[in-house]
Amino acid sequence: MSDVAARIEMGLATVRHRPMAEWPQTTFDELGMMNPFTTGNLKQWRKAIAATRHLRGAIVECGTYRGESLGPLGWLLREEGDPRHLIGFDSFQGFPSIADEDRAEGTYLGRPDYFTRTSQADVQAFVDALGLQDRVTLVGGFFEDTLPRTAVGPVSVLILDCDLYESYRTCLRELYALVEPGGWILFDEYFNKKYPGARKAVDEFFADKPEKPSRDEELFLTDFFERWYVVKQ
Ligand SMILES: C[S@@+](CC[C@H](N)C(=O)[O-])C[C@H]1O[C@@H](n2cnc3c(N)ncnc32)[C@H](O)[C@@H]1O
């Protein structure tokens, strides 16, 4: 058994047959997962998934890193009997080059090792150990290369968690048309001073679209943090 499989096996030992909502925080920590019931952005992603259950398109996450959000989302989809497929796009080797639009005081962008502590093989082993291999697909490589040559099909929820100006631009250019009417597009870094390029790319893209980014007022009130999204018309 691989190290990843052994770690997941141990973490799941006492909770495997309990609803995820009842898992203690220590289990999420052991499994290397974010807690989707307490983490602000995942609360919004759950809300988007619930609001789009009538749609058939895939749930697409652009920016998967180590699978810390993709893992719990896949587990919840299965637990809720939601048949939608989850697709995770990432280089699995960190950022591509950084545009001028991304530079701001206090960002992590100067660190060459940021988001490099991962690999597609490790994340695939994590997905396999959770038993999610049939409902999760990982696509490794830079979005600029992978998105144009991947048959994504219809999308019901598009999660953009990829930080950078050019990355947001590429994902919106390649995937917006695939989002079904009523589908949600979530912008993880729209309100994030570390990543000013994300908001700029979103605002530029939607300038000539019927939808305009909105703040989730409900989560803003509960979390005191801003979550932004659009619902496709
Ligand atoms: C904030 S992390 C994702 C975190 C993950 N969703 C989670 O919650 O654990 C951002 C990821 O976007 C990826 N990324 C950013 N721009 C990319 C690009 N152009 N192509 C591929 N991956 C990219 C980075 O490699 C990094 O892993």
Feature tags:
233 residues; alpha/beta; Rossmann fold; binds S-adenosylmethionine
**Distinct ligand kinds:** S-adenosylmethionine
Whole-angstrom Rg: 17 Å
**SSE ordering:** HHHEHEHEHEHEHEHE
Q: What overall geometry do the principal axes of the alpha carbons give?
A: globular
* Total number of beta strands: 7
Main structural class:
alpha/beta
Q: What's the domain count?
A: 1
Q: Order of strands across the widest beta sheet?
A: 3-2-1-4-5-7-6
CATH topology group: Rossmann fold
Task: Please estimate the helix content.
Answer: 25-40%
Report what the structure shows:
The protein contains 9 helices and 7 strands; from the N terminus they run αααβαβαβαβαβαβαβ. The protein starts with a helix and ends with a strand. α4 (70-79) links the parallel β1 (58-62) and β2 (86-90). The protein has helices spanning 3-12, 25-31, 40-51, 70-79, 120-129, 143-146, 165-175, 196-206, 217-223; strands at residues 58-62, 86-90, 136-140, 155-160, 179-187, 214-215, 228-231. The longest helix is centred in the first third of the chain and has 12 residues, at 40-51. It has 233 residues and is α/β, with parallel strands linked by helices. It has one domain (34-231): Vaccinia Virus protein VP39 (Rossmann fold, 3-Layer(aba) Sandwich). A 7-stranded mixed beta sheet has the order 3-2-1-4-5-7-6, sandwiched between helices. S-adenosylmethionine binds at residues 63-65, 68-69, 90-91, 94-96, 115, 142-143, 161-164, 167.
